[in-house]
Design a protein that fits this description.
Length: 258
């Protein structure tokens, strides 16, 4: 992405979104494909779906048999993670404890940090922090250089934060780019947690919005990111989605103005 200009990135993402829509109409003739309409591999609608096998993880995708399930898994894997995560979170009962745990995964600490890596030191300098000791909320990992397992854990933590903190406003915006085979299913997923308002306030109180902002600054995402399907956004894309939440965005604005 570094070899493209900002305008090129936005233009390419817009073109890709349009191409996905055209491809969808080619495949389904204008009909909206529902993840529960038929086999996720064959993409043939069935009146009687009761005999199809369900994905044991998300309990949403359907398959003719084991062979179809294996064939469809590469395409279904990312959306399966999202659907499963959102369903699981809405059943949680200790939201604040979960919030604190996710922040810890994202390197949040109550103690000062010493940051020496060029990337993180550069981010700190860009917002007027010249160290060597930085606040405990500062995102202290050079994501691109982190081990794959840590990258996976950081992505999952960001996704779960989005599941906890998303509200009706951001869900209305982001659902249009939800996994492209799940257009109808998403309406059955909770738009927001019952505790969303309090969780957003608590998150800002803990400076979680600043942790996300310091992470985002490693790889600022252009507005066109919001046209990319949620399951294709990656860690920085999900962080960007979190920072689109009004309460968090206002908190970042207040920080930058002081």
């Amino acid at each position: 992405m570094l070899d493209k200009t900002y305008d090129q990135v936005c233009e390419d993402a817009g073109a890709a979104a349009e191409a996905r829509l055209v491809e969808h109409f080619k495949q389904h003739g204008g009909d909206v494909w529902t993840i529960g309409s038929g086999c996720h591999s064959c993409r043939q609608k069935r009146e009687d779906v009761g005999r199809l096998k369900r994905c044991v993880k998300c309990d949403a995708a359907l398959f003719c048999d084991r062979e179809c399930q294996v064939s469809a898994w590469p395409a279904h894997k990312a959306e399966c993670c999202i659907i499963t995560t959102f369903k699981r979170l809405i059943k949680s009962d200790n939201f604040e404890s979960k919030l604190a745990s996710l922040l810890e995964t994202l390197t949040f600490s109550t103690c000062l940090k010493k940051v020496e890596e060029p990337m993180t030191a550069g981010v700190a300098s860009s917002i007027g922090m010249n160290g060597p000791m930085l606040p405990g909320w500062f995102f202290a990992v050079d994501y691109e250089q982190a081990p794959k397992e840590q990258q996976k854990a950081l992505y999952q933590a960001a996704l779960e934060l989005y599941g906890l903190l998303k509200d009706d406003e951001c869900w209305t915006r982001d659902k249009e780019s939800f996994p492209r085979s799940s257009y109808t299913l998403i309406e059955s997923l909770p738009h927001a947690s019952p505790a969303t308002g309090k969780l957003q306030e608590k998150f800002v109180e803990m400076n979680g919005h600043l942790l996300l902002f310091s992470a985002w600054l490693q790889h600022p995402e252009p507005p066109a990111t919001q046209a990319i399907p949620l399951e294709d956004r990656g860690f920085f894309g999900v962080v960007d989605s979190l920072l689109q939440i009004s309460t968090l965005r206002d908190g970042v604005d207040n920080f930058m103005q002081t």
